[in-house]
Amino acid sequence: MPPSKKRKIALLPEEGHETEVSEQSTAKSELPQPTPSTAVNDTDEPASTAQTSNSTEKNKERQDRFKALRARAQQSAQRNLKEAAAESQRLATDPNLISSISRKQAFASHNLLKAETEAAGEDFERKRAWDWTIEESEKWDKRMEKKERHRQDVAFQDYTQDARKIYKRQLREMQPDMEAYEKQKEAAVQKAAASGGLEIVETDDGELVAVDKNGTFYSTADTTDFIENKPEKAAVDRLVKDLQKAEETRLRKRREKGKGEEEGDVTYINEKNKQFNQKLARFYNKVRIFRFFQAI
Q1: Helix and strand tally (H, E) in the chain?
Q2: What is the pLDDT of residues 63-114, one digit of tens each?
Q3: How deeply is 238 buried, as exposed, middle or buried, from its count of CB atoms within 10 A (0-12, 13-18, 19+)?
Q4: Sign for the pseudo-dihedral over CA of 183, 188, 189, 194
Q5: Of 139, 117, 120, which is closest to residue 128 (Cα–Cα)?
């Protein structure tokens, strides 16, 4: 049998004090002791509060980002709608109609100004010339003269004039490579100077002049050095392209005149007679063939 627990009793002379000590010890034993789980919950409260605040901030950021994206999408949709409406309006508007309206407006303003000037008893051409300088007026007169010459030169006169017009058009379309020309010229000068056929002389004002000693540098009527020139591939391709373009133009004009198809025997003396014969054939060839078969 185990020994009994020893109770601590205050050594007081009176019994009432001993009873008070035992009651205090009994009350302390009856108080609830904190469990381990309760202590852990007390330490987790700050962590859970921090997690809740972090999730709230993230949700708020997502909502702000979503609102910004929605606003941007709405702005893009409105801008696209405006651009589509402007594009449809531009496509629906005929540019020829706009130019015609502008031309009519210019004519109307011109006629109105002329009528007002004549009603006031003033010279219209003199008043109109006040808006232009002498240089602009001369340039305009030259332009009108050139336009009138070109209008008179459009009609076919002879094959010489036709060839001249083609030649002038080709000159306008030609774009020489001046940089390559300057390089070739510089190389030719240096080569001639190195061989002794060309002498570079500096004048008093500092200008360099090339002097041909034996007369072989500059070309003459008897010069044949051009046969050694080899053109570049781009120049050859440009020449071929021009020839093809001229051939296509010739065939197109031939088709427009109705001479592109193969023809049989020539039964006409001019274009009017040809059209008359074609009309007769269109109306009476079938009747003639039908009567021929009836006779058979």
Answers
A1: 9, 2
A2: 888 889 889 898 888 888 888 888 887 777 777 878 888 889 988 988 898 8
A3: middle
A4: positive
A5: 117
Burial 152-186 (b: 16+ CB within 10 A, else e): eeeeeeeeeeeeeeeeeeeeeeeeeeeeeeeeeee
Question: What are the structure tokens assigned to 118, written together?
Answer: 């004549």
Q: How many angstroms separate the CA atoms of 232 and 174, rounded? A: 16
Backbone angles phi, psi at 212, to 5 degrees: -85, 115
* Cα 114 to Cα 151: distance, rounded to the nearest angstrom: 27
Please check whether residue 204 is in contact with residue 210, taking contact to mean a CB–CB distance below 8 angstroms: no
Q: What pLDDT digit, counting tens, does each position of 16-34 carry?
A: 444 444 444 444 444 445 4
Residue 196, sorted as left (phi over 0), alpha (psi -120 to 50) or beta, turns out to be left
Distance CA 34, CA 28 (A): 13
Tokens of 242: 């021009």
List the Cα angle 153/159/163 in 5-degree steps. Answer: 75
